[in-house]
Every structure is written in structure tokens, then in C-alpha cells.
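Methods — Computational structure assignment.
A single polypeptide chain was analysed. Its primary sequence is given first, followed by the predicted tertiary structure written as C-alpha cells.
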Amino acid sequence: MWPWALALGLVLALVVAAHAETWRGLVVAPERRCAPYVRDDYRYPQSAKHDIIAGMGGRVYAPYTGSHFPSREETDIEHMVATSEAHDSGLCAADAPSRTVFARDLDNLTLASAHVKRYEKGGKDAADWLPELNQCWFAARIVAVKRKYALTVDAREAAALEAVLADCSSTDLVLYAPSEEPAATAANDQGSPDRRAP
């Protein structure tokens, strides 16, 4: 690309950004897929589970449902800002190494049951899915991660996140004790209540 074209593109991007609507430091814009989504660009090592668990005090814990698991193999690594959603919110313009950095960022990784990750949340954003528990923590993490990577937020997602954050007295992660885990949640996440951690 010619230097003058690059400079012109930068000036135009700054002009658009200056006139764009913002919410909590994020540009509000519709999602846009500016390049094909290639799942391999968003790879992460399974060893990330070890770091996630260490960050939860050694618990194999799914914050969305407050569920404890006897084994880390019973959980999936979950991107709070889904990779496909991040791609359509700005990472489509990034190079493959930048996408890999995003995919491995522990600020955006947690654990979830396979059912929640694969059949409930998937690639949805907050406008279409919110966790059962830890909504304030989840919403604050979404905003922080999107700011960190200069991602956009669409109007519906901003409204859903604002509805959560407006009522939060804290955005800290709540680590429920196994005895506090709702029986219905445990049955949904782990197959049957008798498989709950003691």
C-alpha cells in the first residue's frame, strides 16, 4: 500500500472514530465480518485450563453456573467474548498472530460445562445470552476485554450489558461453595446430582 493511502486511511479512521457513538469507552457499531473467520487463527493450548484453575484458587469451577467439577476434563475452556464475535467486532482486520494472542488471553478465558459452552452460549454475545450467575463479573470482563483489543460493541449488546452493570455493587467473581450450588444447575451441568463435588 502506498504511504499516502495508508495515511489517508488512518485519518479517515480517526475522523470516523471521533464521530462514532461510544459506550463505556467502546465504539458502538454493528458487527461486520471484514475477512473470513478461520477458527485456526484462534487456537489456544489445552494447558490454559491449568492457568484458569490456578486463578480460581485451584478449583475446577464454572462461574456461569456456580458448578464445581471433580475433574478438569469435565469442563471446556470458554471465551467470554466469543472468538467469532470478537472477529466480527474488529479482529477480522487483525493479523493471525494478534488473533492468537486474543484467543490465549486469560482475561477472556474461563471454564464452562460442555453443555453450556456448546449448546447455550456458543458464539452469542450478551444481547442473546447472559450467565445464570456472576453476571456482573461477566459483563465487566466483556467490557474490559473489548477495550483491551479495541473491539466494537453493537447497540443491543451495549444495552444488555448496561442493564446488568447498572445494578452491580461489585463486579468481583463469586466463587460459590459446593454446598451453595443449586441442585438443578448441577444436574444440568454434570448429568446427575450425585456427580457433584463433595
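Note: Confidence is low (pLDDT under 50) at residues 1-16, 183-198.
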